[in-house]
């Protein structure tokens, strides 16, 4: 009997991490051009630098880029659709955090 093997890979990212565009392309497995288009669309915001060679991205941007690329691939979205999906996911996460905080406050009152 053949057993299928499931392989899960991950990258542990520190929010204090700062990477260049070239490093971001390696971490995301994407082209520099795609990531430049994401910056142009507002999906990613470099922390510093005026030109692509000077851009610096933090750990949160790395996570956002990887998530955007997964959405594009899995759902076959264009950049505008990806931006909308990311905004909605961010809003959903913020609402969940808010609900959790409110539930915690209400639980402390009783």
Which descriptors would you attach to this protein?
110 residues; mainly alpha; Multidrug-efflux Transporter Regulator, Chain: A, Domain 2; two-stranded antiparallel ribbon; 4 helices; globular
Helix-strand sequence: EHHEHH
- The coarse silhouette is globular
Instruction: Kindly report the spatial arrangement of strands forming the biggest sheet.
Output: 1-2
* Structural class based on helices, strands and sheet pairing: mainly alpha
- Give the beta-strand count: 2
**Total helical elements:** 4
Mean pLDDT: 87
User: Largest sheet at a glance?
Assistant: 2 strands, antiparallel
Terminal Cα separation, in Å? Answer: 56 Å
Tell me which CATH architecture applies here: Orthogonal Bundle
Strand content: 5-15%
Topology:
Elements: E1 18-20, H1 21-28, H2 32-41, E2 56-58, H3 59-75, H4 79-109
Helix pairs in contact: 3-4
Could you characterize what this model shows?
This protein is mainly α and 110 residues long. It has one domain (18-109): Multidrug-efflux Transporter Regulator, Chain: A, Domain 2, CATH 1.10.1660. The protein is built from 4 helices and 2 strands. It has helices at residues 21-28, 32-41, 59-75, 79-109; strands at 18-20, 56-58. The chain is globular, with a radius of gyration of 18 Å. The model has no long low-confidence stretch (mean pLDDT 87).
């Amino acid at each position: 009997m053949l057993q299928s093997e499931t392989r899960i890979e991950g990258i542990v990212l520190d929010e204090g991490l700062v990477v260049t565009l070239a490093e971001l392309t390696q971490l995301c497995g994407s082209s520099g051009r795609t990531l430049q288009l994401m910056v142009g669309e507002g999906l990613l915001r470099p922390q510093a630098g005026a030109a692509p060679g000077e851009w610096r991205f933090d750990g949160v941007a790395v996570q956002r880029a990887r998530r955007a690329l997964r959405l594009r691939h899995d759902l076959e979205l264009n950049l505008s659709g990806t931006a909308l999906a990311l905004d909605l996911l961010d809003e959903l996460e913020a609402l969940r955090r808010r609900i959790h905080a409110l539930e915690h406050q209400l639980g402390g009152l009783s």
